[in-house]
Design a protein that fits this description.
35% of the residues lie in helices and 20% in strands. Bound molecules: 2'-monophosphoadenosine-5'-diphosphate.
Amino acid sequence: MNINGNTSLYGVIGNPVGHSLSPVMHNAALAALGINGAYVPLNVVNVGDALIGLKALGFRGVSITIPHKETILEFLDVVDPVAERIGAVNTLLLKNNPDDGATPVVHGFNTDWLGARMALEEHISLAGRTVLVAGAGGAAKAVGYGLHEAGAKVLIVNRTEKTGRKLADWLGCGFVSFGELASVQADILVNTTSVGMVPRACDSVIDPDLLPGFKVVMDIVYAPLKTRLLQDAEAAGCVVIDGLAMLLCQGAAQFEIWTGQRPPLDVMRQALESELQVDDAVFDC
Ligand code: ATR
Protein backbone atom coordinates (compact mmCIF):
# COMPACT_ATOMS: atom_id res chain seq x y z
CA MET A 1 0.00 0.00 0.00
CA ASN A 2 1.42 3.38 -1.03
CA ILE A 3 0.05 5.97 1.40
CA ASN A 4 0.36 9.54 0.19
CA GLY A 5 -1.42 12.89 0.19
CA ASN A 6 -4.25 11.54 -1.98
CA THR A 7 -5.04 8.50 0.17
CA SER A 8 -8.72 8.29 1.18
CA LEU A 9 -9.19 7.45 4.84
CA TYR A 10 -11.55 4.80 6.16
CA GLY A 11 -11.84 3.15 9.56
CA VAL A 12 -13.88 1.38 12.20
CA ILE A 13 -14.76 2.95 15.52
CA GLY A 14 -15.60 0.74 18.48
CA ASN A 15 -14.47 -0.16 21.96
CA PRO A 16 -12.78 -2.59 22.03
CA VAL A 17 -11.83 -2.71 18.35
CA GLY A 18 -8.56 -4.68 18.40
CA HIS A 19 -10.16 -7.90 17.20
CA SER A 20 -12.26 -6.35 14.43
CA LEU A 21 -11.91 -8.18 11.11
CA SER A 22 -13.11 -5.15 9.14
CA PRO A 23 -9.63 -3.66 8.52
CA VAL A 24 -8.32 -6.81 6.85
CA MET A 25 -11.49 -7.18 4.78
CA HIS A 26 -11.69 -3.57 3.57
CA ASN A 27 -7.95 -3.09 2.99
CA ALA A 28 -7.95 -6.23 0.83
CA ALA A 29 -10.89 -4.86 -1.17
CA LEU A 30 -9.30 -1.42 -1.63
CA ALA A 31 -6.03 -2.99 -2.77
CA ALA A 32 -7.75 -5.42 -5.15
CA LEU A 33 -9.52 -2.57 -6.95
CA GLY A 34 -6.42 -0.36 -6.96
CA ILE A 35 -8.12 2.31 -4.86
CA ASN A 36 -5.74 4.64 -3.05
CA GLY A 37 -7.30 4.20 0.40
CA ALA A 38 -6.45 2.92 3.88
CA TYR A 39 -8.77 1.52 6.56
CA VAL A 40 -7.71 1.68 10.21
CA PRO A 41 -9.10 0.46 13.56
CA LEU A 42 -9.94 3.34 15.91
CA ASN A 43 -10.55 2.63 19.58
CA VAL A 44 -13.05 5.28 20.67
CA VAL A 45 -14.66 6.07 24.02
CA ASN A 46 -16.50 9.30 23.15
CA VAL A 47 -18.21 8.94 19.80
CA GLY A 48 -19.24 12.62 19.54
CA ASP A 49 -15.64 13.79 19.96
CA ALA A 50 -14.47 11.13 17.50
CA LEU A 51 -16.86 12.39 14.84
CA ILE A 52 -15.52 15.94 15.11
CA GLY A 53 -12.04 14.45 14.61
CA LEU A 54 -13.08 12.30 11.65
CA LYS A 55 -14.62 15.35 9.92
CA ALA A 56 -11.55 17.48 10.60
CA LEU A 57 -9.21 14.79 9.30
CA GLY A 58 -11.20 14.26 6.13
CA PHE A 59 -12.22 10.61 6.64
CA ARG A 60 -14.49 9.34 3.85
CA GLY A 61 -16.08 6.20 5.25
CA VAL A 62 -16.37 4.71 8.73
CA SER A 63 -17.79 1.51 10.20
CA ILE A 64 -19.41 1.73 13.62
CA THR A 65 -19.34 -1.21 15.96
CA ILE A 66 -20.14 -2.09 19.58
CA PRO A 67 -20.93 -0.10 21.74
CA HIS A 68 -21.56 2.93 19.48
CA LYS A 69 -24.17 1.80 16.93
CA GLU A 70 -27.07 3.47 18.77
CA THR A 71 -25.31 6.42 20.44
CA ILE A 72 -23.87 7.67 17.13
CA LEU A 73 -27.36 8.56 15.82
CA GLU A 74 -27.66 11.88 17.65
CA PHE A 75 -24.43 13.18 16.08
CA LEU A 76 -25.30 12.58 12.43
CA ASP A 77 -26.41 15.14 9.83
CA VAL A 78 -28.47 12.71 7.71
CA VAL A 79 -29.78 9.30 8.79
CA ASP A 80 -31.04 6.76 6.29
CA PRO A 81 -34.74 5.98 7.06
CA VAL A 82 -34.06 2.25 7.59
CA ALA A 83 -31.22 2.96 10.03
CA GLU A 84 -33.53 5.39 11.81
CA ARG A 85 -36.23 2.74 12.06
CA ILE A 86 -33.82 0.07 13.33
CA GLY A 87 -32.30 2.65 15.70
CA ALA A 88 -28.72 1.66 14.84
CA VAL A 89 -26.07 2.86 12.40
CA ASN A 90 -23.06 0.74 11.38
CA THR A 91 -21.86 2.84 8.40
CA LEU A 92 -20.92 6.49 7.97
CA LEU A 93 -20.31 8.26 4.68
CA LEU A 94 -18.68 11.69 4.95
CA LYS A 95 -19.31 13.90 1.93
CA ASN A 96 -18.43 17.51 1.31
CA ASN A 97 -21.38 19.86 1.58
CA PRO A 98 -22.38 20.76 -2.02
CA ASP A 99 -23.11 24.36 -0.90
CA ASP A 100 -19.57 25.22 0.16
CA GLY A 101 -17.65 22.19 -1.14
CA ALA A 102 -15.79 21.91 2.14
CA THR A 103 -17.76 21.22 5.33
CA PRO A 104 -18.25 17.45 5.65
CA VAL A 105 -21.82 16.19 5.96
CA VAL A 106 -22.13 12.90 7.81
CA HIS A 107 -24.64 10.34 6.50
CA GLY A 108 -25.52 7.25 8.58
CA PHE A 109 -26.67 3.90 7.19
CA ASN A 110 -27.33 0.39 8.48
CA THR A 111 -26.02 -2.47 6.33
CA ASP A 112 -26.39 -5.24 8.94
CA TRP A 113 -29.96 -6.00 7.85
CA LEU A 114 -28.87 -6.13 4.21
CA GLY A 115 -25.93 -8.38 5.12
CA ALA A 116 -28.18 -10.97 6.76
CA ARG A 117 -30.55 -10.92 3.82
CA MET A 118 -27.80 -11.16 1.19
CA ALA A 119 -26.01 -13.98 3.05
CA LEU A 120 -29.18 -16.08 3.15
CA GLU A 121 -30.38 -15.22 -0.35
CA GLU A 122 -27.20 -16.71 -1.79
CA HIS A 123 -28.60 -20.08 -0.67
CA ILE A 124 -32.40 -19.82 -0.44
CA SER A 125 -35.20 -17.49 -1.55
CA LEU A 126 -36.75 -15.79 1.46
CA ALA A 127 -40.23 -14.78 0.33
CA GLY A 128 -42.83 -16.90 2.09
CA ARG A 129 -40.27 -18.86 4.15
CA THR A 130 -40.55 -19.22 7.90
CA VAL A 131 -37.37 -18.12 9.66
CA LEU A 132 -36.69 -18.82 13.32
CA VAL A 133 -34.37 -16.12 14.72
CA ALA A 134 -32.67 -17.06 17.99
CA GLY A 135 -31.94 -14.01 20.16
CA ALA A 136 -33.44 -10.58 20.67
CA GLY A 137 -30.49 -8.17 20.90
CA GLY A 138 -29.24 -5.60 18.39
CA ALA A 139 -28.11 -8.26 15.91
CA ALA A 140 -31.50 -10.01 16.04
CA LYS A 141 -33.25 -6.69 15.39
CA ALA A 142 -31.26 -6.04 12.19
CA VAL A 143 -31.52 -9.67 11.02
CA GLY A 144 -35.25 -9.85 11.79
CA TYR A 145 -35.86 -6.57 9.94
CA GLY A 146 -33.91 -7.70 6.87
CA LEU A 147 -35.71 -11.02 6.62
CA HIS A 148 -39.12 -9.51 7.26
CA GLU A 149 -38.44 -6.97 4.49
CA ALA A 150 -37.53 -9.83 2.15
CA GLY A 151 -40.98 -11.31 2.69
CA ALA A 152 -40.08 -14.03 5.19
CA LYS A 153 -42.30 -14.95 8.13
CA VAL A 154 -40.07 -14.31 11.14
CA LEU A 155 -40.43 -16.04 14.50
CA ILE A 156 -38.33 -14.98 17.51
CA VAL A 157 -37.07 -17.42 20.13
CA ASN A 158 -35.28 -15.96 23.14
CA ARG A 159 -34.16 -17.04 26.61
CA THR A 160 -35.74 -13.97 28.23
CA GLU A 161 -39.39 -13.86 27.24
CA LYS A 162 -39.91 -10.15 27.90
CA THR A 163 -37.07 -9.08 25.58
CA GLY A 164 -38.10 -11.63 22.96
CA ARG A 165 -41.73 -10.45 22.95
CA LYS A 166 -40.63 -6.82 22.74
CA LEU A 167 -38.66 -7.51 19.55
CA ALA A 168 -41.43 -9.70 18.13
CA ASP A 169 -43.96 -6.88 18.71
CA TRP A 170 -41.63 -4.37 17.02
CA LEU A 171 -41.30 -6.65 14.00
CA GLY A 172 -44.98 -7.56 14.06
CA CYS A 173 -44.09 -11.26 14.23
CA GLY A 174 -44.49 -14.19 16.61
CA PHE A 175 -42.53 -15.27 19.68
CA VAL A 176 -41.85 -18.77 21.02
CA SER A 177 -39.90 -19.96 24.03
CA PHE A 178 -37.08 -22.53 23.70
CA GLY A 179 -39.40 -25.01 25.48
CA GLU A 180 -41.96 -24.70 22.66
CA LEU A 181 -39.52 -25.33 19.79
CA ALA A 182 -40.42 -29.00 19.33
CA SER A 183 -43.80 -27.91 17.91
CA VAL A 184 -42.36 -25.21 15.61
CA GLN A 185 -41.93 -25.76 11.87
CA ALA A 186 -39.54 -23.42 10.10
CA ASP A 187 -37.40 -23.50 6.94
CA ILE A 188 -34.47 -21.48 8.23
CA LEU A 189 -32.75 -20.99 11.60
CA VAL A 190 -30.51 -17.99 12.30
CA ASN A 191 -28.52 -17.80 15.54
CA THR A 192 -27.91 -14.18 16.54
CA THR A 193 -26.90 -14.95 20.14
CA SER A 194 -23.31 -15.31 21.29
CA VAL A 195 -23.90 -18.96 22.25
CA GLY A 196 -21.14 -21.17 20.79
CA MET A 197 -18.50 -18.45 20.64
CA VAL A 198 -15.03 -19.22 22.01
CA PRO A 199 -14.21 -19.97 24.79
CA ARG A 200 -17.59 -21.81 25.11
CA ALA A 201 -17.34 -23.37 21.66
CA CYS A 202 -19.04 -26.62 22.70
CA ASP A 203 -22.36 -24.89 23.45
CA SER A 204 -25.21 -24.66 20.96
CA VAL A 205 -28.35 -22.55 21.14
CA ILE A 206 -30.60 -25.41 20.01
CA ASP A 207 -30.98 -29.12 20.75
CA PRO A 208 -29.53 -31.09 17.77
CA ASP A 209 -32.67 -33.27 17.68
CA LEU A 210 -34.63 -30.23 16.49
CA LEU A 211 -32.35 -29.46 13.54
CA PRO A 212 -33.44 -31.95 10.82
CA GLY A 213 -36.58 -29.87 10.13
CA PHE A 214 -34.57 -26.88 8.87
CA LYS A 215 -33.38 -26.49 5.28
CA VAL A 216 -30.80 -23.83 6.08
CA VAL A 217 -29.02 -22.91 9.33
CA MET A 218 -27.00 -19.70 9.62
CA ASP A 219 -24.84 -18.67 12.57
CA ILE A 220 -23.53 -15.14 13.07
CA VAL A 221 -20.81 -16.41 15.43
CA TYR A 222 -17.53 -16.75 13.49
CA ALA A 223 -15.10 -17.79 16.21
CA PRO A 224 -14.93 -20.69 15.72
CA LEU A 225 -15.90 -20.66 12.06
CA LYS A 226 -17.60 -24.06 12.24
CA THR A 227 -19.61 -23.63 15.43
CA ARG A 228 -21.16 -26.51 17.32
CA LEU A 229 -24.54 -25.43 15.91
CA LEU A 230 -23.23 -25.62 12.32
CA GLN A 231 -21.58 -29.00 12.95
CA ASP A 232 -24.86 -30.36 14.32
CA ALA A 233 -26.82 -28.80 11.45
CA GLU A 234 -24.49 -30.28 8.84
CA ALA A 235 -24.86 -33.71 10.46
CA ALA A 236 -28.64 -33.23 10.28
CA GLY A 237 -28.43 -32.59 6.52
CA CYS A 238 -29.04 -28.82 6.58
CA VAL A 239 -27.28 -26.30 4.34
CA VAL A 240 -25.06 -24.29 6.67
CA ILE A 241 -23.92 -20.66 6.44
CA ASP A 242 -21.08 -19.54 8.71
CA GLY A 243 -20.65 -16.27 10.58
CA LEU A 244 -18.30 -14.79 8.00
CA ALA A 245 -21.12 -14.62 5.46
CA MET A 246 -23.07 -11.86 7.20
CA LEU A 247 -19.88 -10.02 8.15
CA LEU A 248 -18.79 -10.16 4.53
CA CYS A 249 -22.14 -9.09 3.07
CA GLN A 250 -22.64 -6.14 5.45
CA GLY A 251 -19.05 -5.09 4.66
CA ALA A 252 -19.66 -5.42 0.94
CA ALA A 253 -22.67 -3.11 1.20
CA GLN A 254 -20.50 -0.59 3.13
CA PHE A 255 -17.78 -0.75 0.50
CA GLU A 256 -20.28 0.03 -2.24
CA ILE A 257 -21.67 3.01 -0.29
CA TRP A 258 -18.14 4.42 0.17
CA THR A 259 -16.62 3.77 -3.24
CA GLY A 260 -19.58 3.33 -5.57
CA GLN A 261 -17.78 0.24 -6.89
CA ARG A 262 -18.75 -3.43 -6.90
CA PRO A 263 -17.06 -5.06 -3.91
CA PRO A 264 -14.62 -7.91 -4.72
CA LEU A 265 -16.41 -10.51 -2.59
CA ASP A 266 -13.96 -13.37 -3.17
CA VAL A 267 -10.96 -11.28 -2.18
CA MET A 268 -12.76 -10.03 0.93
CA ARG A 269 -13.82 -13.52 2.00
CA GLN A 270 -10.30 -14.86 1.43
CA ALA A 271 -8.82 -12.08 3.57
CA LEU A 272 -11.24 -12.86 6.38
CA GLU A 273 -10.51 -16.58 6.24
CA SER A 274 -6.74 -16.18 6.34
CA GLU A 275 -7.01 -13.77 9.27
CA LEU A 276 -9.28 -16.16 11.19
CA GLN A 277 -6.95 -19.12 10.68
CA VAL A 278 -4.44 -17.31 12.88
CA ASP A 279 -6.86 -16.67 15.74
CA ASP A 280 -9.39 -19.45 15.42
CA ALA A 281 -9.13 -21.93 18.28
CA VAL A 282 -9.17 -25.57 17.21
CA PHE A 283 -11.80 -27.38 19.22
CA ASP A 284 -13.28 -30.81 19.45
CA CYS A 285 -16.35 -31.23 21.66
P1 ATR B 1 -26.22 -8.00 20.36
O1 ATR B 1 -26.67 -6.58 20.50
O2 ATR B 1 -24.82 -8.16 19.84
O3 ATR B 1 -27.19 -8.83 19.59
P2 ATR B 1 -27.09 -8.55 23.07
O4 ATR B 1 -27.98 -7.37 23.06
O5 ATR B 1 -26.24 -8.76 24.27
O6 ATR B 1 -26.08 -8.59 21.83
O7 ATR B 1 -28.01 -9.83 22.80
C1 ATR B 1 -27.56 -11.07 23.07
C2 ATR B 1 -28.67 -12.09 22.79
O8 ATR B 1 -28.10 -13.33 23.02
C3 ATR B 1 -29.87 -11.94 23.69
O9 ATR B 1 -31.02 -12.31 22.99
C4 ATR B 1 -29.56 -12.97 24.78
O10 ATR B 1 -30.69 -13.51 25.42
P3 ATR B 1 -31.38 -12.77 26.69
O11 ATR B 1 -32.27 -11.71 26.11
O12 ATR B 1 -32.10 -13.85 27.38
O13 ATR B 1 -30.23 -12.21 27.51
C5 ATR B 1 -28.89 -14.04 23.97
N1 ATR B 1 -28.03 -14.90 24.78
C6 ATR B 1 -26.81 -14.59 25.29
N2 ATR B 1 -26.31 -15.63 25.99
C7 ATR B 1 -27.25 -16.63 25.92
C8 ATR B 1 -27.33 -17.97 26.43
N3 ATR B 1 -26.34 -18.50 27.15
N4 ATR B 1 -28.43 -18.69 26.13
C9 ATR B 1 -29.43 -18.17 25.39
N5 ATR B 1 -29.42 -16.91 24.89
C10 ATR B 1 -28.35 -16.15 25.15
